[in-house]
Amino acid sequence: MLNVFRKKAQSTLIQGMVLMIAVVFVFWGVGSSLNKNRNSVATVNGVEITFKEFQTAYDRAVDNLRNQFGGQIPAGFLEKLGIKKQVIAQLVQAELIRQGGQEMGITVSPVAVQKEIQKMEVFQKDGHFDLDLYKKLLSRNKLTPKSFENGIMADQLSRRVTGEIGSFAVVPETAVKDWLAYTNEEIQLVYAAVDAADFEEKVEVKEDELVSWFGKNKEKYRSEPQVHLQYLFFDYDDDAAKLDISEDELKAKYEADKSSYEIPEKRHARHILFKVAATDSDELRAEKKKKAEEVLALARKGDDFATLAKEYSEGPTKERGGDLGIFSRGRMVPAFDEAVFSMDSGEVKGPIETRFGYHIIKVEEIIPATTRSFEEVQGNLAASMKKQKAKGMSFKRGTKTYEDIMRTGSLAKYAQLDKEPVHTTDFFPRSAPPEGITSDTLFLDTAFTLKKGELSSLVELSQGYAILFVDDVQAPSVPELAAVRDRVVADFKKDKAIELARKAADKLLADSREKKSLKEAAADYVTLQTSTFVKRATPAGKEVPPVELIKDGFKLNWKDTLPTKTIKIGKSFYVYEVVDRRVGDEDVDEKEMTQIKNQLLSSIRRKLTGSWLAGVQETAEIWTNTQFLK
């Protein structure tokens, strides 16, 4: 649902334009801790941007980022990103667009806003706008009709302003030809890879060089700290094995938690997607929507939906006839989700707009919500109840043992009582713990936090409770060369092999430039590969050179065939020669030609709008309250 609101109440055109110029964000969201100062954050030609506007936009930004990071924003990330500055910049630029529209005499009437909202399918029931549904959905997303309608008005104003500016954009025929010539240009390469691995056996290991190299790189051989432990472990499973849960207890627990065994309603649906990007022109968006409506008419007329999807869909499910499988509520993007779960079985609906484009949807099957029976869950429920009770028993055992250790005065003296078994480990580093509970992350966290001679408190682990005692600690140290000689020699050879490979590749390139031919310079000591003709955007393949070579090859002047330096990819060095160039096939059909023109037109419009906004911003009187950037 919020994706629809983002598109409708915060202009996509503004987003694309502002991202081009200042890389700022437009978001929706609620809640903030930035409420200490109620002053304005900026003024634009005397028009105030209030703290409330800033607070709302800031919250939207944080909320969006939090969703991207799975609910948790990394520490310090907001400061590094400069999110406050970006939000203020977006608000300033949005105000400049609004003022620019006023100067052009562009206005948006309340009636136009109403008509726009009434056309939104998400607010419709049985094909008609439903006021109660409108208020309900806005309330669910913590929006008021006034704020939403103001957003729609701002969106329409922005569209008209950018549309007015973009109307001056023209795509000359020569621009299309130049674009085709650029994208269809092809080159053929002959290339050789000089691999460092081939030189390892040629590296001569001299003692003085090895010692010197080890001295410069010895930190990489520093050992990890190691610990020698004694510990006691109170296993949940041991205590659970002693328990017996009656059927009456199980049934009572089942009835108390019955709601947790509910299986939500699911839907089996197909869709046909007509892709639309945020940067696409209004003309292209309208064209895609019209096509979606045409295909919708075919589907409603009775044409097989799967066949239509295979023919028209632009989504990844195209080959499966648009089949999305079976899913529950909340698995799809909000607008799509709302539509699917408001439809009847066999119903076809659309076009539904999401951030991916326009969808035509068919619900194949509705699987009603059910509740798993007591018999189905009895086994798992018994195991869960046993484990829960066992945790309490294990905790009591652990607590009593800890008190006994304190009472006897040491773990060694407690061990003599022969009550709970005390386990002992050898020295081990964190990266290679013994098998068993000692590999538990919390166990290791505790073990490598304690100092020699320290006893831990009772530590809760994933499978039980533990008490740890550190017998001894080995501090990390840099070993003598003799102790790690084999590793050092192997690493030394690999390092020197890279130097030898680089020198060999540099010599090959120098010889090639002198002889003006890689083939002649390579002779028999390097294996050459010849590519097919490739374009700038040729995808990876069997006879396709690494993309770094292709990019570099297209940078060369037409008169040049050899690069000025080798190209390092991993531990290999590449030398190449452009042996042929040609202008690729420029024969394109009318549909592709239209797409190219639309893409170029969108690009020119964005540049025009960006230039206009930059000019307006340069002459505007803008004041920013810097305290909000701290």
Task: Describe this structure in a few short sentences.
This protein is 48% helix and 17% strand.
How would you describe the overall organization of this protein?
48% of the residues lie in helices and 17% in strands. The chain starts with a helix and ends in a 6-residue tail after the last strand. α2 crosses α22. Strands 6, 13, 14, 15 and 16 form a five-stranded antiparallel beta sheet that branches. It has four domains: 186 residues, Orthogonal Bundle (Triger factor/SurA peptide-binding fold), CATH 1.10.4030.10; 137 residues, no CATH class; 111 residues, Chitinase A, domain 3 (Roll), CATH 3.10.50; 104 residues, Chitinase A, domain 3. It is an alpha+beta fold and 630 residues long. It contains 22 helices and 20 strands.
Class inferred from helices and paired strands? alpha+beta
Number of distinct helices: 22
Strand content: 15-25%
Give the fraction of residues assigned to helices: 40-55%
